[in-house]
Each structure stands twice: as C-alpha cells, then as structure tokens.
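Propose amino acids for all 1293 sites.
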C-alpha cells in the first residue's frame, strides 16, 4: 500500500491507515457494495482520502461508509464496520469541539431515519457526530442480531460511553444504555450476557463519576473515569476484571455465527417482555403507573410498534428527555411540547430559610440564562440514567412465571436494582451535595439532584421492599440501608414513611417469612452499631410531634418481642445445630447479602435456587431470636458509647470520635450533612448540627409534649369527653371553642375515627356545634355528590343510631349545597334525602344479612319526587347506584387494618395437596396493600413539597450531645430488660448467655452514669437473681457466668450503684457461703430449706474458687478506698445490712457467720485515711452496726465484734487528735453502749480488757477518748460484778 502510514485526527491522535483501510476494503469488496452505489462511492472516497493521509479533519466522511455498512444488516460487514468504529472511538477520531449549550440542544434532537452529514431534512439543528455514531451503533442491534454482532455492538458502545473525548449526552446516552441492557436480557450466549452486564456496570459508573460535585467542574479534562484500554479490547478488560473476582466465563465454541440470512429468532417470552419492559428506559416516562411529579398517572405501556428500534423509537427517546424540561437552550423560546421545569421536577432548590425559591418572571432574566457547563450536562446525564433504572425496577412481577429467576422480567429487575445499589454505594455525594444542581436555561430555576431523583428512588423502594421474591427483597433492604446511612438528613419524612409502613410492619407480620425478617434484622444490627444514627432516629421521630410513630421506641419493642417469642422449633434446632454456629456465622448473618448475578449461566447453575441461601445459615426461629438478641445488645453498646463519651469528651457535649464497630463511618460533608463512607474507618465522628442547635432540653420538652399528646389521644379513644378536657388543659387544643376542637379532631393522627363519630354525633349543644365546625372544614366545591359523600365519611366513622346519622346528613347537605350552588338539587332537602338514601343503598348492597338486594329500579323508586316534588335525572341516580355497586363506601383505615390483620392460613396437608403456598399468598395480599398505601403517602408528600408546604418538622436534627441517651433508655428500658433476661432464663447456650450478660453490663453502665434509680434496681436485682446463689442445687454454668458479670459490675460501677450495693454484697456473701459448703464445712443458716442446702455440682464448686471469681470478689473490698465520698457511705450501709442479715440467720449456732463483719473491718482499715468528714459519715453507720453486734445474745458474735472494734481503735488512736475535737470519743462509743446493754459478764470483761490495752499502748494519743473510757468504767461499776472488774483492772496498775 502506498501513501501515508497514519492519519492525524482532529484531536491530534495518529490513527493507523491499516486500521481504517482494511475495513473499507472489506466493504468495497462485498456484494452489498455492488448492489448499493451509495455505499461503494462513499467507501471508495473515504479509502482514497485515507491513503492520501487525509480525512483526519473530515471524520463524518470517513464515518459515512461505516454507517451505511451497518445498515446493510450483513453480519460480516456489520462486524467489520463496528470493529472499525470502536477502534476509531478509542483513538478519539470522532471527537468534535461543541459548545455545551449547543451539545444540549443537539442531544435533544431525534436522529433521522437516514442521518446525513449535514442538517436533517426538517431544517433543525445538525446532529453531533457523537449522536450520529451512537444512533448507528444502536440501530445495528435488534432481537434477531447474531451473537457475534451483539458482542461487537456492546464493545463499540462501551468504548463510546467511556470515552473522555467523545461525549454522549441525554437521549443518545439513554439509547446506548438501553441497547446494552437489551443485549444482556435477550442474548442466549452467557459470554454476551456477562460482557453486557459488566459493560453496563462500567457505563453507569462512568456516567456518575464524570459528574463532579463540591465545586466547579466545567472542563472535560477534569473527568475522572475509567479509561478504555489502548488497544480497544474492552471485552478482554472485562474478562480480566471478572477473573480477578473469581467469575469464570464459558468459552465461545466458534467465532462463526449464523449469517444474516438465517437470523436467530428470540423466544415468544423474550418478544413479549421486550414489548413491555426493555425499551421503557427511553419510551415510558411513567413506567407502569409511576406518577409524574405533578401527581398524574402515567400513560399506558408502549405498544409493540413503539418498542421497535426505529426512528420512531428515537423520537420517543428524545421526547422522554424533553419531558423533565431540563433541556438547556441559548434562547428563551420554549419548544412546543416541552413542559416547564417546575411541573416536572418539583419545587426549586430551597433557600437558606428552607423555603423554595420563587421563579422570577422578569423579561430580563428570560434573556439572561445561566451559562451551561459541561459538568451541568454530566449531572443531567446522571439523573436521566438513574431515573431510567428506577423505572425499570418498578416493573411489576404479576405472575409466578415472571417471578422465576430465569425470566426476563426478573433478570431485568435484579440487574436494575443492583445498578441502583451500585450508584448509591459509589456515588452518594452527587445526591446529597448542595452543589449538585440541575439548571434551567430559560429561567433562574434550580432543582437539586436529590429533589429530582428521590421520588423515583422512594417509589422503587415502596414497590420492591414488599416483594415476596427473596432476592428482590434483600437488595431493596440494602438500598434502603444506603438511603438511611447517607441521606437521612435529606429524606427525613421519606425514611419515616418507609420504616412505618413497610419495614417495621414486615417484622411484625405473621405472614412474612423468617428469611425476610432475618434480612431486616441484619440491617437493623448494622444500624444498632451506629450510635449517631440511633440517637438521630430518636431525636427526629420520637421527639417530633408530627411523626405518627415513635420509631425508635417501636423498633426496640419489636426486637425485644422477637427475642422473647417462644420458638416452636427450639428443641429440634438445638438438637441439630451445634453451638458454634452462631459464632462462625455471626458476621455472615449481619453483613449485607446480595442476590446472585442475573446472568442466566449463574442462575441456571446446579444450586441456583439456593445461591443466596448458601450465603446465610438456615432461617430458623432459634436463629432469628439470636439475631434479635444481638441487635438489642448492639443497641445497648452503642448507647454506652454515645452516652459515656468513649474515645474522648465528656458527658456534656459528647466525644470527638467514636470507635467504629462495623467497618463503616459517617463523614461530614462541606455543608455539615452526613455522608456514608463504606471504607473501613478507625474512628467515627460526631458531626455537628448543620443548622439548628442540638439543645437537649428542647428535645426533652418536645418528647414530654409528645408523650402527653399520646396520652391525651389514648384518653380520647377510650373516653372522648375526658380526652378532650385533658387535651384542652394540656394546651394541645387552644380553647374549648368549637372551631378549635374541630380543627384538632380533623388534623390529628391517631384518633379513633369511631370515637370521633361518637363524639360529634352526641345530641348536646356543645357536640353539635363542634360537629358543624368539623364539617365546615371539609371542602366540597365542584366535587361530584358521591365523591363528596365518600370524603365526608372518610373523616370519621358514622355512628349506628338513626338520630346521630340524621344530624350528620343534615349538616352534610347544607355544606354540599353551599359549595355547589349550580347543582341540580333545588334545595338542601334533596341532598339530605339522597345522602341518606345512598348510605342505605351501601348498607343494603354489602350487608351479608340482607337477602333481597336493592336493584336500580328500586333505588329509582325510593328517590322519586325528592327534588322539591320532582324527580332527579335518571342518569344521576343510575350513576350513583353503579358507583356504590362497584365500590363500597368503606373507611380506608378499616380496609388496611383488615388486610394487615388477616389470619395466617394453615399450612397443613390441605395446602400442600393444592400445590399452593397460602402463607405466601396472604403475604402478597397484605404487602400489596402496604405498597399502595406507601405510594399514596409519597404522592401526597410530593404534592405538598411541590407547593412549598414545608413544615418545621421536616428539618433534620443531627445529634452531638450524649445526654440524649438518658431519655432513650428511659422509654425502652423495659424492652431491654425483657429482651436480655428472657434468653438468659431459657437457654444454657453459653454464647447466648454471654450476649445477655454483655447486655446487662451495658444497661447497668447506662443507668449508673445517668443515675436512673428505678431502672438500676431492676437490672441489678434481675442479674442478682440469675446467680442462683440461693439455690445451689439448681445452679448451672450460666449462673456462674452471671456471678462473674455481677462482680465485674461491682468493680467498675461502684461509684454509681448506690442502693443496689445491697444485692451485690448479698451475692458476695452467698458466694463465700457456697465456697464453704463446697469445702464440706457445715454452714449454719436457719432460713434455708433442705432444697436450698443441696450441694452444687463439683465443676461449679471448683469454678467458684477460680482465680477470676476470687480476685474479683476481693477487689470489691480492696478497691473501696477508690470510691467517692458518697459512694463509700452507700457501700458501708449495704455491707452493714448484709452483715446483720448474716448474723441474724446464723446467730443461734456456735459458729455464726461473720464474713461481712470481717469485711467491714477490712474496709475500715482501707478507708481510715479518708478526710475526717467522709470518715465521720462512715463511722455513723459503722458505729451503729457495732452497737447492734456487740450486744448480740450470742457471745461468739459479741467477742468477734469487740475484738474487731479493738483492732480498729488501736489503728485509729495512732492518729493525733487536736484539742476541742471529739473524734476519739465518737469512735469509742460502741464500747460504752455494749457495756451498758450487754449483761454478759464475759463480754463486759472483754470490753475492759480492750480499754486496758488501749491505755497501755496509746495513752499518749488519747484525748477526747478519755471521756468515753470513763463512761465505760462508770457503767461497769454499777453492775454487781462491775466492782470486781474495776478492782481487778486497777490492781493491774
């Protein structure tokens, strides 16, 4: 070949002549070139330019023969031309420099059926070369395209989309994504499927990666995206990446494929699914009933003709791009058919005050649009792709065949859900960053990316999170987890709806499967490990009066209930499952689980149906209880971390950082909001409040107000009059004026509709006035009669008494006539009678006790002459009859309650014989109602947000104070106690016991730090009972673990135990008793029965003498000098009480128990160096106790006490006492008390001997003590034997 060896492209990249010439020569030599002069001429001209080293500045002329070759549908030519196009793309041969605004306009233009190098025949703006290339490649694919051509199409499109120089936007980008999506779904070749799936993943990732947020990014060079391999071998790159991940692709047998004369015909299922699903990325703006932003329902699904890959399809794609009205133009003119931004994407971005910015209508601004940057186009591209994927996830799976993992519908749903999850995983900043804005060129209007996309994301979750298909449900839960972690500051109300209406009800539903509940518990376990997320859920929902549910409190109650529910398969599971299962699978159970790849090769494998189940252990009730317990304990751990300031800081403001427990972290973004970071992190940062002050007192007040409101609602639902009075007194109802009471009844959630009806229907003058004010709130203007009646009867439940119904109907008729003066009704009597008649018709048609149903003629006769002596139009009466016959007037609340409370069908042999899963059918029925209700709530919410009706309750509060833990624990402590004590009582599994005891430690830590007396007594007392030290014969290994836990608590929480020291020290005393009994020593205990005196098992006896227990028990006393001045008093008081209990229970024996008395002496030694003020408080208790013990009737007790008191006195008298103090006098008072009150001569003699020793050894230090000593001598001299004692005493001197 003569001529140049390379061609210089417009971007300066040299392109080999051989690369292009070989393809052009193949085209010229083909039979199709001989049949098509246009093809041959263009190919010949292009080849001549290439050989002469020209054409680099005329890429369209080089591209024209390649485009025409693709149109021939010849397999060989298509492969050659597509391969050449793909390589030219990788060398940036088709790169053009286009103004972003012009690029936007060209991207919205539909490519014509036969694109030309100039403007289209309609005279519109010329297509960009990137759009022309995209259209050519996508048009080369159809249902019958051979696999080899399909693979080449994927390679070419992947190179095109990933190119950093040839930028594809909007409709062309959607077409490229759609085509690769179709290849994945329709191809029967597993290699093509895997390559298409990997390519689609890269394309979506690139679209989002190139959209920069957090600062200006208006240059293409700033795009950070995957780079196509230099040799253009995209498939090899995908193979290598998948191989590194452990995915092995089957090898293609032969590269030869059927010729174009014998195309591959897809199955009928593929054709049918393509008609309804595949092209919805670009064709179906509503996507199966998805509401538009203005609340209208979408149009019908596209027909088969509309889904064919023709120019009409391309026009639909362009129209779909125009639909959100994000087209950026350089003039202020609006093309016909394009809607305004405000009607399709919701309200503009909120200003600093939280209110939507109003659109300016000045003519100057219309002609001064914002300058569009390339990054603006990238952000819009990301939104369009995300919206399209969300729409695909919402396609319903109505039949069992569609729920099969191999079906096209299921594979489409799984792939789209996985892509949505991947986007949220890797590109969350584009959603939450305030600089991520979609701009309008015709005005100064802005729409945040999250505001534009959240409706599609939330609706996708509402439909898929109730799916009975496990794989769909699991990935939906993962998507919600990303939303909860990364977007909770932005989607406060949306998260509330999803939790209240879907996820928490599924945990409570009896028809939900164990697997579904296990997946949800795994997600909640991860939530439980995030202290800040837990606290913020409490602040934003439990402390929010407008939130219908206390989500945190309800969640704790649900988890606790799941822990304590008796497992029906507990024995079987315990017999079959080894104890180690939980420890080995703990990480697996709580980590994220993902469905299998939607590739048919993976789905069709040997264990395809169990591919996900293999990731997690068997779903039994026992394991569900274990998961619930772990989640509950994780909550307690998180509350300890947040409440105690672990990692730094103090109780007032919280620590600066928290240790991460789940490998994830929250990082504050530039605007102070939280971002989710999936990378491992060593610290977790408490972010500061974005806009509002985190005032604990404010939240405490708000919580109290909400609790009071709920109490008032409860009173009203039980006794309406009493409830109204309570609510007025509490200030929730402004006054007793009828208008104020009616407004409260109309607007407040949680009130019983039946009780509202009863209260409004009362015949008292006050109730009638409130009823009239209530009806006046309703607006019936220009509403059909039956619709107005339905609205009226939805606001309360109509009472059954005729007089009450009569009063309601009279007021309804008056209100309806006031709002519809042009109605056919001549007066209010007509509306009154017809309303009454309609209610009777509804009862007649739907009451099962009525045998003879009313007919149309009968209804017509009943209403004859009611319009002031004349008849109403028959058409009106017939329409009313048909409306009621087709749709019963029934309260929505009752319908929803009936669905959710439907009985669980039996799953016996009858159900198996029919081949039906009745539980699954019941779940589908219930979940459908939940999804419909959730979707309706989202529609209402979106309409309110569109109108700018933002409430203060929608503002999100971030947590920073640790004191929030106190009210959080107070509202849920009973659930915590039940949840961790139930399993401790029921199981002997030491791993579960360890979990429960860990929960006890955390709970007691919280109650001690925040000084919650009632809760502290409950937890410590419960744990003390689980030691079984009062019933040694029944003691097990778990009880020994409880002893260790209690001793550890005593050592670590001593300063805060207060009155709970009594239970702790009682257990220590009983532990010493157990050790004595185990050594064969007979311990006297008059209060014990024979059962209580049974010996413990030998292994437990040895364990009681273990180093851990012995050291911990000794540390309780030896470390007492570290207790605070207040805590030591509580400790001494408790030890004195336990000591007296020991003496009372064993005082009649020769060897009474004096363990605690000895410990009192020990701690007196340890604490004698305390300041005098603290010691005086201690001795007040100790002295009184020694008074009791020294006068005990058992001389052995008195002797031991006197000797102990002597030792302490000798130690105490070592300290010098200053003049005018009386510390020694008070310390020696027990000797005087014993001398007076104990008549035993031996005891008295010992008292004098003790004093004698003190005088002999400490005479120089005695000061105020002499007064007490002489008092002892005086008391001794008054007794019969006292004179002898005194004589003997002085004789020694």
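Proposal:
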């Amino acid at each position: 070949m003569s001529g140049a060896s390379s061609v210089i492209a417009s971007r300066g990249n040299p392109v080999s002549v051989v690369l292009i010439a070989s393809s052009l020569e193949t085209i010229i030599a083909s039979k199709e070139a001989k049949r098509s002069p246009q093809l041959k001429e263009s190919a010949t001209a292009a080849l001549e330019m290439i050989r002469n080293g020209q054409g680099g500045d005329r890429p369209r002329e080089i591209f024209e023969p390649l485009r025409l070759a693709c149109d021939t549908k010849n397999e060989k030519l298509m492969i050659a031309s597509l391969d050449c196009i793909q390589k030219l793309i990788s060398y940036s041969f088709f790169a053009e420099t286009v103004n972003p605004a012009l690029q936007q306009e060209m991207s919205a233009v539909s490519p014509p059926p036969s694109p030309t190098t100039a403007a289209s025949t309609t005279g519109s703006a010329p297509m960009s070369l990137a759009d022309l290339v995209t259209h050519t490649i996508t048009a080369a694919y159809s249902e019958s395209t051979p696999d080899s051509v399909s693979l080449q199409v994927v390679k070419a499109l992947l190179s095109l989309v990933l190119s950093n120089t040839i930028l594809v936007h909007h409709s062309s980008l959607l077409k490229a994504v759609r085509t690769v999506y179709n290849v994945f779904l329709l191809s029967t070749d597993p290699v093509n499927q895997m390559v298409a799936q990997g390519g689609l993943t890269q394309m979506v990732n690139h679209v989002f990666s190139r959209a920069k947020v957090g600062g200006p990014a208006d240059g293409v060079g700033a795009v950070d995206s995957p780079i196509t391999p230099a040799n253009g071998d995209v498939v090899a790159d995908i193979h290598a990446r998948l191989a590194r991940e452990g995915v092995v692709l089957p090898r293609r047998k032969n590269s030869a494929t059927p010729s174009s004369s014998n195309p591959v015909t897809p199955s009928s299922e593929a054709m049918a699914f393509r008609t309804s699903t595949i092209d919805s990325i670009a064709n179906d703006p509503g996507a199966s009933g998805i509401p538009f932003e203005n609340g209208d329902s979408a149009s019908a699904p596209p027909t088969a003709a509309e889904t064919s890959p023709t120019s009409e399809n391309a026009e639909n794609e362009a129209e779909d791009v125009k639909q959100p009205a994000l087209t950026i133009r350089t003039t202020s003119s609006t093309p016909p058919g394009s809607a305004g931004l405000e009607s399709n994407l919701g309200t503009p971005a909120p200003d600093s005050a939280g209110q939507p910015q109003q659109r300016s209508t000045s003519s100057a601004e219309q002609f001064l649009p914002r300058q569009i940057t390339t990054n603006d186009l990238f952000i819009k591209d990301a939104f369009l792709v995300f919206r399209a994927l969300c729409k695909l996830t919402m396609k319903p799976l109505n039949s069992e065949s569609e729920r099969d993992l191999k079906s096209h519908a299921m594979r489409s749903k799984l792939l789209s859900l996985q892509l949505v999850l991947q986007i949220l995983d890797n590109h969350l900043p584009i959603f939450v960053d305030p600089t991520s804005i979609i701009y309008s060129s015709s005005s100064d209007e802005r729409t945040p990316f999250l505001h534009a996309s959240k409706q599609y994301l939330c609706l996708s979750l509402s439909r898929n999170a109730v799916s009975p298909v496990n794989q769909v449900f699991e990935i939906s839960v993962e998507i919600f987890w990303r939303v909860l972690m990364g977007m909770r500051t932005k989607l406060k109300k949306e998260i509330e709806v999803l939790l209240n209406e879907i996820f928490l009800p599924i945990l409570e539903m009896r028809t939900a499967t164990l697997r579904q509940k296990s997946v949800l518990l795994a997600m909640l376990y991860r939530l439980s490990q995030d202290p800040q997320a837990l606290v913020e859920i409490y602040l934003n929902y439990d402390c929010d009066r407008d939130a219908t549910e206390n989500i945190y409190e309800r969640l704790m109650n649900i988890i606790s209930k799941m822990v304590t529910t008796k497992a029906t398969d507990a024995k079987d599971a315990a017999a079959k499952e080894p104890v180690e299962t939980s420890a080995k699978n703990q990480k697996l159970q709580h980590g994220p689980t993902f469905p299998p790849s939607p590739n048919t090769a993976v789905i069709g494998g040997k264990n395809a149906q169990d591919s996900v189940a293999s990731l997690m252990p068997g779903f039994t009730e026992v394991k569900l209880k274990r998961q619930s317990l772990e989640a509950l304990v994780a909550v307690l751990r998180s509350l300890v971390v947040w409440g105690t300031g672990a990692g730094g800081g103090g109780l007032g403001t919280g620590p600066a950082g928290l240790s991460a427990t789940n490998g994830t972290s929250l990082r504050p973004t530039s605007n102070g909001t939280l971002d989710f970071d999936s990378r491992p992190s060593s610290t977790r940062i408490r972010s500061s409040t974005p806009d509002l002050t985190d005032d604990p007192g404010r939240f405490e007040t708000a919580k109290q107000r909400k609790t009071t409101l709920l109490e008032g609602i409860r009173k009203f639902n039980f006794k309406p009059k009493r409830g109204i009075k309570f609510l007025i007194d509490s200030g929730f109802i402004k006054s007793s004026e009828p208008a104020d009471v009616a407004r409260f009844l109309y607007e407040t959630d949680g009130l019983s509709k039946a009780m509202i009806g009863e209260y409004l229907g009362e015949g008292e003058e006050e109730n009638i006035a409130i009823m009239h004010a209530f009806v006046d709130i309703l607006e019936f203007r220009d509403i059909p009669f039956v619709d107005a009646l339905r609205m009226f009867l939805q606001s309360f439940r109509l009472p059954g008494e005729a007089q009450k119904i009569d009063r309601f109907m009279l007021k309804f008729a008056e209100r309806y006539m006031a709002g519809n003066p042009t109605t056919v009704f001549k007066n209010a009597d007509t509306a009154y009678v017809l309303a009454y008649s309609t209610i009777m018709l509804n009862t007649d048609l739907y009451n099962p006790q009525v045998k003879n149903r009313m007919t149309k003629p009968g209804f017509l006769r009943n209403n004859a002459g009611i319009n002031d002596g004349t008849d109403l139009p028959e058409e009106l009466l017939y329409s009313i009859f048909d409306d009621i016959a087709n749709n019963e007037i029934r309260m929505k609340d009752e319908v929803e309650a009936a669905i959710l409370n439907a009985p669980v069908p039996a799953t016996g042999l009858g159900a198996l014989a029919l081949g039906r899963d009745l539980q699954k059918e019941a779940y589908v029925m219930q979940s459908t109602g939940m999804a419909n209700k959730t979707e309706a709530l989202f529609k209402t919410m979106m309409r309110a947000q569109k109108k700018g009706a933002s409430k203060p309750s929608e503002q999100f509060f971030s947590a920073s104070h640790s004191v929030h833990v106190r009210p959080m624990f107070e509202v849920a402590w009973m659930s915590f106690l039940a949840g961790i004590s139930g399993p401790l009582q029921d199981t002997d599994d030491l791993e579960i016991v360890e979990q429960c005891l860990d929960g006890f430690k955390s709970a007691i830590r919280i109650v001690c730090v925040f000084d919650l007396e009632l809760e502290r007594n409950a937890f410590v007392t419960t744990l003390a009972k689980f030691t079984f030290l009062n019933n040694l014969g029944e003691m097990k290994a778990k009880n020994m673990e409880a002893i260790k836990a209690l001793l550890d608590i005593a050592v670590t929480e001593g300063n805060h135990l207060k009155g709970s020291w009594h239970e702790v020290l009682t257990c220590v005393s009983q532990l010493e008793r157990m050790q004595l009994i185990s050594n064969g020593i007979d311990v006297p205990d008059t209060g014990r029965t024979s059962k209580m005196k049974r010996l413990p098992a030998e292994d437990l006896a040895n364990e009681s003498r273990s180093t851990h227990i012995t050291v911990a028990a000794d540390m309780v006393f030896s470390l007492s000098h570290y207790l605070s001045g207040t805590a030591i008093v509580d400790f001494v008081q408790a030890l004195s009480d336990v000591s007296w209990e020991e003496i009372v229970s064993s005082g009649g024996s020769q060897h009474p128990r004096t363990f605690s008395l000895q410990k009192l002496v020990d701690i007196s030694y340890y604490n004698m160096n305390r300041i005098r003020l603290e010691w005086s408080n201690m001795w007040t208790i100790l002295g009184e106790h020694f008074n009791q013990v020294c006068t005990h009737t058992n001389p052995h007790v008195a002797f031991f006490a006197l000797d102990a008191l002597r030792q302490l006195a000798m130690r105490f008298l070592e300290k010098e006492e200053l003049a005018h103090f009386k510390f020694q006098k008070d310390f020696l008072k027990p000797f005087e008390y014993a001398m007076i009150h104990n008549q035993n001569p031996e005891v008295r003699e010992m008292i004098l001997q003790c004093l004698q020793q003190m005088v002999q050894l400490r005479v120089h230090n005695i000061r105020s003590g002499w007064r007490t000593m002489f008092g002892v001598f005086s008391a001794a001299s008054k007794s019969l034997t006292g004179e002898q004692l005194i004589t003997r005493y002085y004789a020694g001197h």
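The radius of gyration is 41 Å. The chain has a mean pLDDT of 74.
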